[in-house]
Design brief:
Blueprint: H1 2-12, H2 19-30, H3 33-41, E1 48-51, H4 57-64, E2 71-75, H5 78-91, E3 96-100, E4 113-117, H6 125-137, E5 144-150, H7 156-170, H8 184-192, E6 197-202, E7 211-217
Parallel strand pairs: 1-2, 1-4, 2-3, 4-5
Antiparallel strand pairs: 5-7, 6-7
């Protein structure tokens, strides 16, 4: 908890404005995502492609935990890329680059580990498959695709997740409203077809959301 608070205070201090530092600090202190991804990557020697990176908070968190591999962040929102790049410069983080682009139109060249966190609900069904395929193609032998996503289930957690994503759109933090949440079967079918070994497990921690961690590993 002390380490989490230290990292949250440090990274949020690089944010501009009034709202963004509070958002960043709260996110880092309460969301199990960052430590969860770190635990999966801490022994990896591969570079990371973070698809839908936003401000690049994951990359900064990994640096604060001592993980030194190169990170390429890629996101549709130009304002987040601009703000995140300023934070990286202020914090003097090395070997992290953020770029703006539309994942529907293609992904940066990469071979290593890949992360897709909390964005797949904003893609329709005909877009999710090609995106996962493109991401899987960038997973190197011995590497991993890490996905966090809400899954479509008939549960209170699912409807809470939907409400949270709708609120993010109404407050303009996200540029789009959720379109369709994938199922566990969708992930297994799409990723096993690309030669990856898939594990899916609940990953909501103390949050009310219906998040799952999808780990897809490519054999050595």
């Amino acid at each position: 908890m002390i380490e989490s608070s230290r990292i949250a205070a440090k990274i949020s201090s690089y944010c501009g404005g009034l709202w963004l530092p509070n958002y960043t600090s709260c996110k880092l202190r309460t969301d199990p995502l960052y430590d969860g991804v770190y635990q999966e990557l801490k022994t990896s020697g591969l570079p990371l492609l973070d698809i839908g990176c936003g401000l690049g908070i994951l990359a900064m968190y990994l640096r604060e935990r001592g993980w030194g591999n190169a990170v390429t962040g890629f996101d549709y929102d130009a304002s987040k890329i601009k703000a995140g790049s300023r934070m990286l410069a202020t914090g003097d983080y090395k070997d992290i680059s953020l770029s703006r682009g539309d994942a529907r139109q293609g992904l940066p060249k990469h071979s290593g580990d890949v992360a897709i966190l909390d964005i797949l609900q904003f893609f329709d069904d005909c877009e999710k498959g090609p995106l996962l395929k493109a991401a899987a193609e960038r997973v190197a032998p011995g590497g991993m695709l890490i996905v966090r996503s809400g899954l479509h289930e008939k549960s209170l957690r699912f409807y809470t997740t939907l409400a949270g994503d709708m609120f993010a759109k109404l407050t303009f933090w996200m540029k789009a409203a959720p379109v369709h949440y994938p199922t566990a079967e969708f992930f297994r079918n799409a990723l096993e077809a690309e030669g990856l070994k898939v594990e899916i497990r609940p990953f909501w921690g103390k949050t009310p959301f219906n998040n799952y961690l999808i780990l897809a590993k490519r054999p050595e």
